[in-house]
Amino acid sequence: xxxxxxxxxxxxxxxxxxxxxxxxxxxxxxxxxxxxxxxxxxxxxxxxxxxxxxxxxxxxxxxxxxxxxxxxxxxxxxxxxxxxxxxxxxxxxxxxxxxxxxxxxxxxxxxxxxxxxxxxxxxxxxxxxxxxxxxxxxxxxxxxxxxxxxxxxxxxxxxxxxxxxxxxxxxxxxxxxxxxxxxxxxxxxxxxxxxxxxxxxxxxxxxxxxxxxxxxxxxxxxxxxxxxxxxxxxxxxxxxxxxxxxxxxxxxxxxxxxxxxxxxxxxxxxxxxxxxxxxxxxxxxxxxxxxxxxxxxxxxxxxxxxxxxxxxxxxxxxxxxxxxxxxxxxxxxxxxxx
Length: 338
Prior knowledge:
By secondary structure, this protein is α/β, with parallel strands linked by helices. Helices cover 37% and strands 20% of the residues. The protein has two domains: 192 residues, inorganic pyrophosphatase (n-terminal core); 132 residues, Diaminopimelate Epimerase, Chain A, domain 1, CATH 3.10.310. Strands 10-11-9-8-7-6-12 form a seven-stranded mixed β-sheet, with helices on both faces. Strand 1, helix 1 and strand 2 form a beta-alpha-beta unit.
């Protein structure tokens, strides 16, 4: 398996790169690669633009150093984690595309059309709950002796965060979590504390505004909601599911760039054989300049449009089209405020 050649690297300068707005799974995956290679190579981690607060907390807890403006020409090898689309690289995209050395890639998102690394150097497992799960299974097969306590802790953090505390997870995900826990002396609650942060006031206000500005659609027994806010769109979409929506699309615009996040309940996705990334967010690039991607129940799009509303409306149209494959006569009704 050529991707396993990663484990044989020696005396190389390796740059580990994840996506902009890196989350816990992204940083934990980068941390795992760093731990794997650091004994025989010079390894740095680079994150484009920013990390979310939970990832920052994990970086502090696990003492994971990272750069935000690396010089790509200084490195022999790139390892890309938790993404497979150039769009997710933000300001790093051009440098990665022009990189002349070997590139390895590990991910669990729905595969995009971009070819960042050669197929034989890529490991994309779309039904994995997190990229840390992908890496744990990879190491279990190729280097089980490397699975120490620190890698176990990072794996667990990535799993817990990306599954929303196991709100959706496969049998394999629970198996990996059980194996990782055996390698540590920490409880489940103690691991959560490693990346937990209090919601900032600005985030709490954004969540409330998302609920205040909501548009509600009923499609048979399903509730689909749209909302527009100034920031924290992914957190707001997740919060709207907790309030009762089956699917939520939340968008924001900043400096003429539109970002839209989508979330769907797993039971809804199963009922309609929906892959939110493939059936909605990948297709948005057919109508708007930009790129989307993600998972079955969580996805996002970043691009340009005249307004957030027109992208939200297209998300709704694409979702309804997918639902009608199962229920062609389905009625759609918007609830208007009285």
